[in-house]
Amino acid sequence: LSILLSLLVPAHATRSPDCGGILTPSGLSYCKSRPHTSRAISREGRQQRLSVCRNQVNSVTVAELTLTLIPDAGLRLSIDVDLGITPAPSTTKVMRLSILSDLHVEMNPEGNLEMVTSACKTSLEEMQSTEEMESKSSSSDVEKDINVDKICLEVSKLLLLPNERLMSLTAQFPVTPSCQVQYLPLAAPMFSEQGITISLQTTFQVVGMAIPLPVSPVPFSMPEPATSSPSHLTLAFSEHFYTSLFFALEMSGAFNMTIPVSRASEGNNPPLPRQLGSLFQEDLPVTLQAVFRSTPRVVLEEGKAALKLFLTVHVGAGSPAFQNFLSVNVDMTAGLLLSVADTRMMISAAGIEEVELSLAASDVGPVPAALLEELFLPTIRAEVPAQMNVVLSEGIFLPHISSFTYTDVNVVIHKDYVLIPCNLKLQVRPG
């Protein structure tokens, strides 16, 4: 398989997006309002106090933090920090340090998204003092003593953790032991009043090599965001995304199936054609080996997802040396059930909606279609989706940032794409 993949044309680097997400203003508010954000700023402020002020800083308290969307530009971060300063013995001042910084997100040379600061401004004013008769000059001395310019440099350090989490967006996630999925941003996000929109392209690796995915017949673009969404985040996946997933699993061999069939003498199975009896010296169990003759295809309609399978089922006997004596083409359509658990999309093939069998090759002469269906259709209908569901049972990781999971999920299937409105939940690790 690795030799075969090495001969394939590498995946095209300029493919159009096949999925993405929109972080809404309410999602942005959730991210910035977590208690750990203020704690991180306070901790960073205490650690850096000697570099911004030669006086003793007793306390650093975040009074207010706002993060505002600036359409077509980025974000505006506003932080008000109260500094408890001791400029002299038995004297304590509380100074309000206000920091205003513009943020934007760009793609670095490694292809990761990175948040950077620009246009930082600071101001400082005295809030209260233990000395009521303290002179104005003393207050201005403290202000001069604080290195306001250096504070802006320290603001960028507050972005280290968010940027680490942004890098986790492009991590490789396992689908099967030999197949991994990766989501790569195509460009820097777009900022609008509706939220932050990011377009992604999905790549799959099989045994460590990127595989060329089928070309999407229709370029995908992120659906227009709703004017006001109560959800923190809306994920979107194109029809082509799902077809690419099944193509990758087929390429990895995950869907190759061996299906045992009960012996003709057991149960109520109809007897095999009389011609088969002369092929074997003893009563051997019949086995079906199913392989794809064409890529599985996912079709999305309003409120419904279907999986179209194009198989060739080889009928034979013998183990370990399989002897094929009959091949049957099977075209079948199964319903697809989609849901989300944590950060994984759970996919399963439901009931078979349509199935067609036709004789592809035979070493035992012609076999009527009605007999093929009578002999093999019940087994194929039951076993093919069951074995595929074993492969799909672990789910596929959705694009996500480390420490965040998805809750209050709703999966909405539209024609050609799937929307997943959800809320974010931050899992704060101890320490």
Automatic annotation (TrEMBL):
Domain of life, per lineage: Eukaryota
Gene3D superfamilies: Bactericidal permeability-increasing protein, domain 2 (3.15.20.10)
Segments forming a coiled coil: none
Record InterPro entries: Bactericidal_perm-incr_a/b_dom, BPI_fold-BPI/LBP, Lipid-bd_serum_glycop_C
MF terms in GO: lipid binding
SUPFAM superfamilies reported in the protein's UniProt record: Bactericidal permeability-increasing protein, BPI
Residue ranges occupied by any Lipid-binding serum glycoprotein C-terminal domain in the UniProt entry: 227-422
Protein name: TENP protein
Species this protein is from: Phaetusa simplex
Gene name per UniProt: Tenp
